[in-house]
Amino acid sequence: MTLYTLKSPSRFQDLPGDPGRRFIEEFFTHGKKEILEHIASAIRRFPCTLIDTDKISIGKRNVVFFLRFDDGVEWAARLRNPFKQANPAHDKETSQRLETLSIESEIATIACIRERTTIPVPEILGHDCTFENDLGCPYMLMNRIKGWPIPDVVQLAGGITEAQILKIHAQMAAVTWQLALKCTFPVIGQLQARKSEGGSFPLDQIIDRHARQVGPFHSSTDYYATRSEMIYLEAKRKDLDQTSLESAQLHIRASPLTFDQTVDKGPFPLQHPDLHRQNVLIDRDWNIVAIIDWSWCSTVPWQSFQPFPFNLAAYIEPPQQKLSQIHERLFWEIFTSLDSDREYDGLHDSHSSEAVLCLLRMSKSRAGRIAKLMNQYAYPIPRSKDAIQLKQILDQRC
Do 344 and 384 belong to one domain? Predict the structure, then answer.
């Protein structure tokens, strides 16, 4: 039984100039610790104390603290870091308004996931999405998950076997299968809070991680055309170098090539936009116990949906391309087999079968490959490696 070592992800708090450490310092020096404890205690009506201060989790936008109540119950408190601004071009009022809307959408998304699927997600026990509370930032209070990011468990175990990789991939297939089949909506947009108990989740504009606003859209065609124009105009406005501008132009050229009449008008699946191995918590038996960080979630065209968000075998060091390809093939075998799994009998109909076959087709089609590269719109400018790959595909004859 071979134990494989995986490439370690970079730690956000180790990046130069990361504002997370500044936030933590001011949290303790400005009495925010006591304020957080008071808020949590008031919600549960039980005294609590901040614990594990050596395990505070610093992410790109959030900082997570842990609380323990006197009866042993533990919560996680996720606070938005006000020192990290999504879009420096926005004034403070605009920035905070968009952050609030984004967090409200995340809460609605988690509610939808809990209601429609068996995907394990944290339970939100209290929240304030504004910057006008005693903490001075939006926060969510959730049950503490007894699990760790995949890379942490791999490190604790001294490596990972092929069987363990396959076990995680099989569970991820069940996660993305449910997102694609149980969480579809008539438009492309972000979920909003329900207007009534038991009502449907309305969708509105997409606010991405750089606080750019687009949509909502009623077709994939409009989605890709609008986003490609947005990235190009942004590159021109920022007066980027010629290489970056040419990269942005590639997206204008690529947009019409994503068209697929069979799925252009939806319904559209919900996608976790940051579903990497750090956001998948597992226990020591390699069971997924939570999918976290549903920020900036939205419905997307089928061309952009990612059933296989990461391949653990692709992170093996030294790289083993053949092994990575084997696990990709095995993933798709598992994913397509879920359509007849008894656990999901309620969805075993022609629609689910067509959707699964559609995703399999998209994974191999030219339109699907182009769309996947265009997903890099989440970044300020198209990344050079993606631009090179996109150009190669566009220059190929159909």
Answer: yes
